[in-house]
Amino acid sequence: MSVDTFWKGEVRVQGQIEDETKIYQTRIFIKGSQIYDYSCSCAEGNSFRGPCVHAKALQEAFAEHTLPVSTSPEIRMMIREYTNREVARILGEEEREPVYLHPYLQIRRGEVLLEARIGREKRYIVKNLLEFAQAGHSGKRVEYGKGMAFEHVPSAFAPESRPFLDLLLEEADAYIRHYEEMRGHAGLPLPVMRALTLGSAARDRLFDLLEGKEVQTEDEKGAERVKKYSTPMAEGLAYNYAAKKVDDNTLAALAKLAEEAQLSEKFAALYNGEVVNTGEKRLVLHHMTRGQLGDAVEADGVDKRSFYVEQQNRIADFANKVHAGEITNAAGEKFTTVVQIGIGGSDLGPRAMYLALENWAKKNNTFKMEAKFISNVDPDDAAAVLASIDVAHSIFVLVSKSGTTLETLTNESFVKDALKNAGLDASKHMIAVTSETSPLAKSDDYLAAFFMDDYIGGRFSSTSAVGGAVLSLAFGPEVFAQFLDGAAEEDKLSLNKNMLENPEMLDALIGVYERNVLGYPATAVLPYSQALSRFPAHLQQLDMESNGKSVNRFGESVNYVTGPVIFGEPGTNGQHSFYQLLHQGTDIVPLQFIGFKNSQIGTDVVIQDSTSQQKLCANVAAQIVAFACGKADDDRNKNFEGGRPSSIIIGEELNPETLGALLAHFENKVMFQGFLWNINSFDQEGVQLGKVLAKRVLAHDTDGALKVYSDLLNI
Q: Which CATH superfamily, name and number, covers 263-683?
């Protein structure tokens, strides 16, 4: 029998149970003293009618086993909600340790600017040196972040920091006196001064204090940090998190959290075919659409990797025949346009991927057919798309796993009417992507049907037949295969148990730290690539539909915050839209930049000694530094506090392989965060209530507020 902690408050027990002459492989999951999930190689082992006799026998054996449980202090600090009482206790413990004051120098146009950091193990920016000086004279207690506070008396500082403290106070006092003299009034509100410009005497005094010590300018320290805090991704990409509010101590604590939460073990359970989607009692197999990371997985009587490969091959064969003119319209003419009809993950993901590769495909001579998308049940959406195409030369891809999705079937009827009005046979213009058990699977209304299954959620379906059909028709199956290869290579990196070498796990852990410890409510996704214009919308669904949960995997309410609000726009458009709030707003919003060194098409123009692509890249570099470092200014309206955390994924060019790697990165990041929050990232019950009520409205089965709103809308 083997026993391990599989989830917080949850234990996994595995063993072999001998029953007469047979031995059964049995696994149970226990929370408290109850079995909440199980599997067994016996005939009753997966019946969902309750634990089999072998599972119960294993439970009895476990009852005699004592499982050691430990939680490191660093992790407890990171995941608990910070109450005033806990903070006060922590601060009381820390005050016994001396405080260190560290000088930071900047050289600008021949002037020496002095900044300061303060702390014990962790260093905090002194954001206003003038307020710091006033606190030093009064002995005022000041908080720095949530982890440190102390009375600003000389004895609180380490002896080696006091000469520098004296210099800093004198320079700040001199500035305050000068400021008040210039305005003729003492006690005026002071400007925010993050840096002080040193005169020649102060510079000499400072350099004397620093003689024999290794001093690093702020620019040097920043450059070193950018090089250090970077992790390679697949296909030449890199995840750089130098502008995040983390240091080596934070990263060490996050690594312990990853180990305690058994992130690697949970991922292994997922790709090896355990029932991870506990809400719907389903496997989660979207990784298997692009490769097999572990054991063979059999479900529905078939090997699932073979099933997904078979569908990809069927789609490739169909697409090649369409491109070759072997499959045509009724008049024997080639199709020139493909239109996908879907909603949610059946639209957002494939649409974002198509737009991401459209220009690349045209440049590289792999562009086969223009793609359009109909998703909104708003009739204007379908009407506008149909008006923009030649329906006689268009092939339509209907995507519905169940074959009963109301919005999708409504839009299908819209399309069929348009085809009929044009004198065309709809069955010669439509294919279906659906499940093998749906009413669409064997229908004569479609040229062909390609299959998905219940083990791939819509928002994770871009690498399945959902994305495969439209992308293979638009760009060719070879391009879709390259896209899958990029995703597969990134998936392999997610297997690494070393957090610092696993970009998805690292990104996920930093995100949880920002959400649960630092308290940041949102994250902005900012791709500096117009081709990724719809990528933030896709990630919005991926993240918010997966981790926007208030109960854990057992249906119990959680007492901590989970998924952030996700939004974004491509740069530089976003700079002229919502960056004002990001730079100077009252809420700190973490930022995820995406950038590429080269454009897709290659056409460019030189203006003022630089190309447009260089200007684009210059903007993203400048924004990262501006958000992180800010700018002190006597005019509070022009003061930038900085301290806005960001990361960037950067690569050479956006192509099928890098797009696949990029997609897999965010899919796996969301998965790891769901594991950390102990929630089920793979169901979406929150979208169901609205659908149920909409059906009641359409059936005129309404009362109360629902009836009033229905009447207001003339339903």
A: Glucose-6-phosphate isomerase like protein; domain 1 (3.40.50.10490)
